[in-house]
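Note to self: user wants both folds in one dump. Writing first protein now.
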Amino acid sequence: MTPETLRARLLAWYDANARDLPWRVGPGDHAAGVRADPYRVWLSEVMLQQTTVPHAAPYFLKFTQRWPTVSDLAAEADEEVMAAWAGLGYYARARNLLACARAVARDHGGVFPDTEEGLRSLPGLGPYTAAAVGAIAFDLPTNVVDGNVERVMSRLFAAPTPLPEGKAELKALVGALVRDERPGDWAQALMDLGATICRPKAPLCERCPISEGCAAFAQGDPETYPRKAPKAARPRRHGVAYILTRGNEVALVRRPPKGLLGGMLALPTSDWRAGAWDEAEALAAAPMAADWRAVGEVEHVFTHFSLTLRLLRAEGNAEGLIWTPRAGLDALPSVFLKAARAGLSNLL
């Protein structure tokens, strides 16, 4: 199958099967001259990093209703945006989101740059996000490569090099298919094909518009692509989370602005380290002297490590803490929400 035939078949499939996503301008509207809003494209791409479409979509709708323009978002207080982000995870993205929005508002008059180089100059916009915004919002012939696109390319060409070593090879294969014609639709067509047809498990090859040219399909083993190098064992860390109550309120702290979960509300905790905490150490690290009682533990998995949090609970009062009604804990990051729910589960 020639590159031009492949492109024609995939674009025709996209015209008939494009996903209806809240941030997307469909191919019919696009053909009629409607252009995607760069703010909405950028916001969706940031939210979709390490997050599924069904999980990200409600957050996208909430953000765009509350902050309909990038300047609206730029003017908001950090803690308000971080609270609205709670539950999406990977909180450095929220900090980068604010930094970028403020740069666009401050340095570009609230208008996103319309070149890939200009987009790359914005805080937090790496090569992928700049390419995606450039293609989808500005019809630039950029090379947009996400995990879905990598999977499609690895199967189409039966690429033998395991990931992550093979990423550069796959990016070159995608780049060879980019044209000036419909670059935004082309990028989204590849993404949609990977998300709905060329799935990680049980790909629907019989429905694929380009299976005739797919080397992995011809071999009969598409699920074995992309090849992946063995994963290193994820290290485990241990910590203690302190659930201090005052009647129906729970004591929270705001984490430092830098680092993991930076700027987010959280339960007070000890440091997180390789070794477990004994009772004396756990009590010494508590936010105040109190009758601390063990109420279980929770497990949480981050990208680079697993965490065991021992839970201690006490009733008391202290200055310098953020007292929050139990009904308001849903805005906590998932690890602390999980710990709070477990630690409070036997209280009325």
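First done. Writing the second protein, which came from a different request thread.
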Amino acid sequence: MSNFNSADIAAFKDVWVFCEQREGKLMPTDFELISKGRDLANELGVNLCGLLLGGEGIESAAKELGGYGADKVIVCESPLLATYTTDGYAKVICDVIEDLKPEAFLIGATNIGRDLGPRCAARLHTGLCADCTHLDIDVPKYKDFLRESSTLAPAAIDSIKEDDRNLKMTRPAFGGHLMATIICPRFRPAMATVRPGVMKKAAFDQAKADACEIIKPVVSLTEADMQTEVVEVVKAAKKLVDLIGADVVVSVGRGISKDVDGGIKLAEELAEVLGGVVGASRAVVDSGWMSADHQVGQTGKTVHPKIYVALGISGAIQHKAGMQDSECIIAVNKNDTAPIFEIADYGICGDLFKVTPMLIEAIKAAKAAK
């Protein structure tokens, strides 16, 4: 650390993304972050670099990252990096950052990322914003985001300086009731862990993949650096709903309260005929009616399905932020002033217990007609 000074901001350049792999396979979050990192790097006028750690042969997966926007991929290979360990990965990442000095470093907010991010930030003496749902550098874009998604006064938004090049990291706070934007103006790299599913993956470009530069620094890692040893990896099979990867999501809200089991059953039937999965609002999860893996929203999962059906969901701001980018939104609610109708492509004002069976029958009839 003798030649590394996190406060020497002028010495830092480029946007980096930590690319998580498991058993040699890249994770979906990698492509989302590389795609977003490309936008940020373009705004700064710098290169985008992926940082990939793994065992021998992991280099073969690196070129794919270029197809989503990476100019370079830094590949750190070692048998000791084949399986994730906190101390091994943190040492290698900090060594490379101290040497090459990126100005921004993005990590997926997965189980591994949430463990790794704060440890690296502490060693590098810099800041970390955890569980981000929005990132900006370009001030005009950030102001547009605030105008659409915040309740700030126009004068407060207009007063933001146009030459601010800090990474603006937005995340939910106070249980999702408040959105906070955080910057790290005095230290580099500015670090953020980013919630999976919130950033849109770009289209793959083979030409960019072929042009991607692979860099292989010397990895200084020995067993003496490792405080833990992975003896065995045991996988537990647990059935969880895949909201992020679903093309159709049917979510239920507090409107099912008069018949919880019946409301959930209707949502399951509608999801089945549409070929989708069932989601839920925070109110439903907090009430114990459905498990947390079904939750959509700022404090749950952010989804971008082709069809999103909201049954009995009023549309609180934290829920809308988790699904408003869906291609087609269909809302059913008894309250004709419910906020969900503001973003719905199709709105039905009515009792979900009467409307949903009609939707199910109509869809079945349309399928039978084909």
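Dump finished. Worth passing along: The mean pLDDT is 89.
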